[in-house]
Design brief:
- Helix content is 22%, strand content 15%.
- The protein has a two-stranded antiparallel sheet with strand order 1-2.
Length: 80
């Protein structure tokens, strides 16, 4: 499974103020590049699921945040 990626602008009033003062010929605002990597499953240590591919995806990122689902829904699949 390949990771899903997204790119989100990070608004910053300080950046906007500096651009208004200095009027640069080009502007490069900050962006956050997110990578959604499929998680580990039971038996991953024996090669089930992504295994080493998961580790290579994790190795290429600068930071990690863990999103936890805190609700029950029949529309969202839960893998044991």
């Amino acid at each position: 499974i390949d990771p899903n990626t997204a790119r989100c602008a990070v608004p910053d009033k300080r950046y906007d103020a500096l651009v208004n003062i200095w009027k640069p010929p080009s502007q490069y605002p900050a962006y956050l590049h997110l990578v959604d990597i499929a998680g580990l499953i039971k038996g991953a240590s024996e090669g089930a699921g992504l295994g080493n591919a998961f580790l290579s995806h994790i190795q290429s990122v600068d930071g990690i945040f863990h999103l936890v689902r805190a609700f029950d829904s029949k529309e969202v699949t839960h893998v044991e």
